[in-house]
Amino acid sequence: MYYDYLYTVLGKVYLLADHHGLRQLTIGSGGFCPDSSWERSPDFMQTYRTQLKEYLLGERQTFSLSLAPQGTPFQQQVWQAISEVPFGCCCSYHMLAGAMNQPAAAQAVGIAKNVNPIPIIIPCHRVMNELGQPASCRYGQDVTLQLLALESGQLTLLQPSVSPDPGNKKKKT
Predict the structure, then answer these.
(1) 137 is catalytic
(2) pLDDT mean by block of 10 residues, the chain; 173 residues
(3) Is the separation of the CB atoms in 128 and 145 below 8 Å?
(4) Which of the listed residues 19, 101, 144, 160 has the most CB atoms within 10 Å of its CB?
(5) By three-state DSSP, how is residue 111 classified?
(6) Would you say 3 and 39 are in contact if contact means Cβ atoms under 8 Å apart?
(7) pLDDT of residue 8
(8) Which of 79, 78, 88 is nearest to 151 (CA)?
(9) Pairwise CA distance, residues 4 & 16, whole Å
C-alpha cells in the first residue's frame, strides 16, 4: 500500500492506494496514522493528489481515477450509484435506492453511504435526506456543507500554490 497526504481547508487529507486503485481517502482525522507497513510515495500517488487538488480548487468536476474501495457487494452498488450523481447535483436516499431497483432499501443506502471509504471522489456529500437537507457523513456536517459550497462555486478548499518570484530574491552581500 502507498499513501500520501495534502493539507486542505478541510484538514489533512490522506490518500491510500495500491496497484488496483485508490482504497481510502481520510479527511482531517487527527487520530489517523498510516500503518507502518504502508509506504509514503508522492510519485505513486501523484495522479490522485493532482486530481484531488484540482477539485478542491474548483478546477475539476469529475475524476478519472482507478478506484478500489473495499466493501460488500451491496455497498459497492451504492457507491457506484453515488458516483453517478453529477457535480453540483443532489439526490436522496430514496432516489438512489430506486435507481438501484431496490426502492425499499433507502435506509440501507444511507448506512452504506456513511461507510464510504473514498469520500469526495465517491461524492456522498451529494446525497440528501428526505427533507432535501444535506445528510451528514462520517466526517460531519461541516465537511458536507463545505463540499456543497465548493460545488456551487461559493468556496475553494485549497489555496493555489504560490511560487516564489525569482526576480524578488535578495542577494547576499
Answers:
(1) no
(2) 94 95 88 90 98 96 97 97 96 95 94 95 92 80 92 85 44 39
(3) no
(4) 144
(5) helix
(6) yes
(7) 92
(8) 88
(9) 7
Task: Give the residue among 98, 92, 122 at the shortest CA–CA distance from 110.
Answer: 92
Residues 16, 38 contacting (CB under 8 angstroms): yes
C-alpha cell at 156: 475553494
CA dihedral 82, 16, 138, 65 (to 10 degrees): -20
CB contact at 8 A, 67 and 118: yes
Q: What is the DSSP letter of 55?
A: H
Q: Which residue is it, cell 482531517?
A: 28
2 grid coordinates: 502507498
* Catalytic residue, candidates 33, 90, 124, 137: 124
Residue 143: CB atoms within 10 A of its CB come to 21
For residues 121 and 106, give the distance between their C-alpha atoms in angstroms, rounded to a whole number.
22
Provide the sign of the torsion angle of the four alpha carbons 12, 156, 47, 89, taken in this order.
positive
In the chain, list all ranges with CATH 1.10.10.10: 73-151
Report, at the CATH architecture level, how domain 73-151 is classified: Orthogonal Bundle (1.10)
